[in-house]
Specification:
The protein is built from 9 helices and 10 strands. By secondary structure, it is an alpha+beta fold. The protein has a 3-stranded antiparallel β-sheet, with helices on one face. Strands 2-3-6 form a 3-stranded antiparallel β-sheet. A hairpin with an 8-residue loop joins β2 and β3. α3 runs antiparallel to α4 and α5 packs parallel to α9. It is globular and about 40 Å long.
């Protein structure tokens, strides 16, 4: 009987750990505007966390600066704003990732795609967003990481965007909305249209 009780307790503990390990969002996406800013900028009023299916954790601390500028111009042209109400939590998580540079940029783009789906965004829109980011989104170097440190120093906050033809990328919009496409398939197609990947790109980040 004692062994049975112990086994039951073990099942409860395992169940609690499984719940904690589930992917998804935790916390509030609430933002407060900065009144003295010339552009639309906000501070988070609570911590926001996104846990990916693979266990990677993306945390946005309370008080973080968020402005949507981590999203490229073509994204804003098609979706209206980097801070889109339809996937506000995902937008905040990605915008902070682009600013903090704690994770590699490719992982951040993958995270956004997964987070948008978790937030209930249609797969077609998540695929389109991934295509736009992979084609025109911000890239960045992790401090002390990779070959960029040889040119710019290990503490450089290096970021860039690839050079592309807007017309070429816009021609992929309807194609990218195909829900049967995988992320590797989208990436492979986009690479055909990138004229200059960087980091020594001639394209300004702003």
């Amino acid at each position: 009987m004692k062994n049975l009780a112990s086994f039951g307790m073990l099942l409860i503990i395992v169940g609690v750990c499984s719940v904690k390990a589930e992917s998804g969002f935790e916390g509030s996406p609430a933002l407060t505007p900065l009144e003295d800013s010339f552009i639309d900028q906000y501070r988070t009023t609570a911590e926001l966390i996104y846990r990916q299916k693979d266990g990677r954790v993306w945390a946005v601390p309370e008080g973080s600066l968020i402005d949507g500028r981590g999203f490229p111009r073509l994204f804003n042209d098609l979706f209206g704003s980097g801070l889109n109400d339809a996937f506000l939590k995902s937008s905040i998580a990605y915008d902070f990732a682009a600013k903090s540079k704690h994770h590699p940029w490719k992982l951040a783009q993958n995270m956004l795609h997964e987070a948008m789906e978790a937030e209930g965004v249609p797969l077609a829109d998540a695929n389109l967003t991934f295509m736009l980011l992979r084609a025109t989104g911000t890239r960045w170097a992790i401090k002390g990481y990779g070959g960029c440190a040889r040119c710019h120093g290990p503490m450089a906050q290096l970021e860039w965007r690839p050079r592309v033809s807007d017309e070429d990328i816009l021609s992929l919009v309807e194609w990218a909305r195909d829900e049967d496409l995988s992320l590797p398939e989208i990436e492979s197609k986009v690479l055909e249209f990138i004229l200059e990947e960087g980091p020594h790109s001639t394209i300004s980040i702003r």
